Structure formats: structure tokens, C-alpha cells
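2024-03-11 09:14:02 DEBUG pipeline.ingest accepted 1 chain
2024-03-11 09:14:02 DEBUG pipeline.ingest length=159
2024-03-11 09:14:03 DEBUG pipeline.predict start
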Amino acid sequence: MNQVMTLLRLLEAHVQEEIGAQSRVLAALEAQGEALRSHESARIVAATAALDSEIAAQAKRAERRSELLASLAAVWSLPAGTLTLGSIVQRVGDEGRRLARQREELADSVGSVARQSRRNGLVARLHQRVTSEVLQAVLVESGTESALAEGGALVDAEG
């Protein structure tokens, strides 16, 4: 049981770290959304780069989470990959109260990240659509409509 409690505390620390990481991802997504709405390409690139670095760190955290869950599963003689935060909370009873609260907070954070990500995707698609419509209008006026219908056209922005 002592090994379970040690692993439980390590898992709680990991979940707390993940909650913080989700908050950073949300902040990066919000900055990206503001940049998208500003129509400033330099801001969009910078915000997306910041978001990319947060996303890249997720792989390391996922590996650590898998290791912790596999260790707990081994202690309980379960196949690796069968445990979830919810099932761990049930197994440890009262000792899992903190983990249960963290699980709810993490679910809220992940939901906020998903909603902001969908909003950013919508804004990006709208920008793409507007850009396509502007190009369509310019190309139709210049008589190159057939080139656009065939899959693309080269636009001379300077001349």
C-alpha cells in the first residue's frame, strides 16, 4: 500500500503540472486568436510558434503519465493501459479525494482548450475563405477565371 501512496502522490503532482500546462496552452491559444483577429501576419506567426512550443512539451508529459499509470497498474496486477484517473480514484477511496478534484479541474481546462481551439480554427477558416474570395474577384476581373477553376493561378502582386 505504501508503494501505491507514493505513486498516487507522484500522479497528483503530474496532474497538477498538466493543469498548469493546459492553462499555458489556453493562454497561447487566446493569444493566437487575438493575432488572427488582428490580421497581422507577424503576430500570427509569433503566436503560433508559442503555441507550437507548448504542444511539443505535451509528448514528454504524456510519456511520464503513461509511466506512472503503468507503474500503478503493475502494483495492482492489471494490464498496462487499463487505468484512468477515475478508476484510480475509485480504487484508492478517501486517499483519492485530491486526485478527484484535480481530475475535474483538468477536465474543465481541457474543455476550455478545445473550445478555444475550435474558435481559432473557425477564424482561420474565415480568413482563408475571405482571401480566396478576394483572389477570385481579382482574377475574374483580370480575365484569368479559367486558370482559377483549373486549380490555381499565379498572381503578380507587383505588376
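2024-03-11 09:14:41 DEBUG pipeline.report Residues 2-123 form one domain.
2024-03-11 09:14:41 DEBUG pipeline.predict end
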